[in-house]
Design a protein that fits this description.
Layout: E1 7-8, H1 11-19, E2 23-25, E3 40-42, E4 44-51, H2 63-70, E5 73-76, E6 81-83, E7 88-93, E8 95-98, E9 104-109, H3 111-114, E10 118-124, E11 132-133, E12 138-139, E13 141-147, E14 152-154, E15 161-167, H4 174-183, E16 187-188, H5 197-200, E17 206-209, E18 216-221, E19 228-229, E20 242-246, E21 252-255, E22 260-269, E23 275-281, E24 289-290, E25 296-297, E26 312-320, E27 325-328, E28 332-340
Parallel strand pairs: 14-19
Antiparallel strand pairs: 1-15, 2-8, 3-15, 4-5, 4-7, 6-14, 7-13, 8-12, 9-11, 9-15, 10-13, 16-22, 17-28, 18-20, 18-22, 21-27, 22-26, 23-25, 23-28, 24-26
């Protein structure tokens, strides 16, 4: 692995990590579909626990030490298991790590789980931080799972989140991003016209805004006793779980505190093959709301196989926390940070490889619901 250049790892470098014993699968084998263009799908094991609340290990403390002292109930995910809304669960992942020195990782929710308001965060031994795997980490990985809006049914083998591996992660600064943008625009309007780089580059990222000017402006989660079964892709009736939101007449919506909303961005984003993108808060002081759970975009998103696509809107998972919130059309809502890959991947995010949201337009619900 020492010969791999610095940067975020593409699919072939991730495959080399797995083949070299740096990603260790329970049972010894991986599904080839776990390797994405620049991320790796992590999967649930059969072992899980219900905890009284969220908790992180202290330096020198293993996750199993926490479980030993705090677990309320042990789960067996070898059979379908119901996770209750608002409860906290800690589930061991099938994959453990033996990372080489200099190689680290971070993790994100997958889009499909973020869009059902299922919060996940990776916890690792001796590490008092969520979703950050330190360089050279060797040990088990655990997933904190909190269903926020709906009960969910899960099984061993399900993939709720993904890992991104890197050696010397490189986030493009504003001046570097401007140079890339001059060669090839990265944000487009709905009509396919490129947006000027000077209008959208801010704080080492691209600024994106909320789109409420469309017939279907978004969705809001409903209260329901029906669970989402994660093994049943495309089989749930969306009307049981979400209420559609029509275009607001005055270009603004009242978001209720604690409720979960699905929206989309006004801008269409493009991720060329040599980059990946992480969605970050625009400004944490601009309002007490969360704009996403799943904040990672693989190379090829909105790009196509040969650059033929002029962007794809990003879907936003929004929750107002402390107070009710007035959301307005074209309100700045997130910042997209581009990170350089160590090499272009041998596959791109595209409908041709089964990427679920490659052609999304507007606020698209999770793959678990019927179209």
């Amino acid at each position: 692995m020492a010969g791999i250049p610095s940067g975020t790892y593409p699919s072939q470098a991730i495959q080399a990590l797995a083949g070299g014993g740096c990603i260790v699968a329970e049972g010894g084998s991986f599904d080839a579909k776990q390797v994405q263009p620049s991320s790796f799908d992590l999967t649930l094991s059969e072992e899980g626990y219900q905890l009284p609340g969220s908790i992180l290990p202290l330096p020198g403390e293993r996750v199993r030490d926490i479980i030993k002292g705090l677990a309320r109930k042990k789960l067996d995910l070898s059979t379908p298991t119901l996770l209750d809304r608002s409860k906290v669960y800690l589930i061991r992942l099938r994959e453990s790590l033996k990372l080489p020195e200099g190689v680290a990782a971070y993790t994100n929710n997958k889009s499909s789980t973020g869009r059902i308001d299922l919060a996940t965060r990776v916890v690792s031994d001796h590490n008092p931080r969520y979703d950050k795997i330190p360089e050279g980490y060797k040990g088990e990985l655990w997933l904190e799972v909190i269903p926020k809006s709906f009960d969910v049914i899960v099984r061993a083998g399900a993939s709720l989140n993904q890992a991104i591996f890197y050696r010397g992660r490189t986030i493009l600064r504003s001046d570097e991003l401007a140079e890339v943008y001059r060669r090839s625009p990265l944000l487009f309007a709905k009509d396919g016209k490129p947006l000027g780089g000077g209008q959208v580059i801010i704080e080492d990222g691209l600024l994106m805004s909320l789109d409420l000017d469309q017939e279907l402006a978004g969705f809001v989660a409903k209260k329901t006793y029906e669970p989402v079964d994660l093994a049943k892709v495309g089989q749930h009736d969306a009307s049981e779980f979400f209420e559609p939101i029509a275009r607001p007449k005055k270009g603004q919506l009242w978001l209720e505190r604690g409720r979960f909303y699905i929206f989309s961005t006004a801008e269409y984003i493009r991720v060329p093959p040599e980059f990946a993108v992480e969605m970050l808060p625009y400004d944490t002081s601009a309002g007490e709301f969360r704009a996403h759970y799943a904040g990672f975009f693989d190379p090829g998103f909105g790009y196509g196989l040969k650059g033929e696509e002029l962007g794809t809107p990003a879907v936003l998972e929004v929750r107002a926390y402390e107070d009710d919130l007035i959301a307005r059309h074209r309100q700045p809502i997130c910042r997209m940070a581009y990170e350089r890959l160590s090499a272009p991947p041998d596959r791109l995010y595209h409908a041709g490889i089964g990427s679920n949201y490659a052609t999304q337009r507007g606020p698209k619900l999770s793959k678990f619901f019927r179209a």
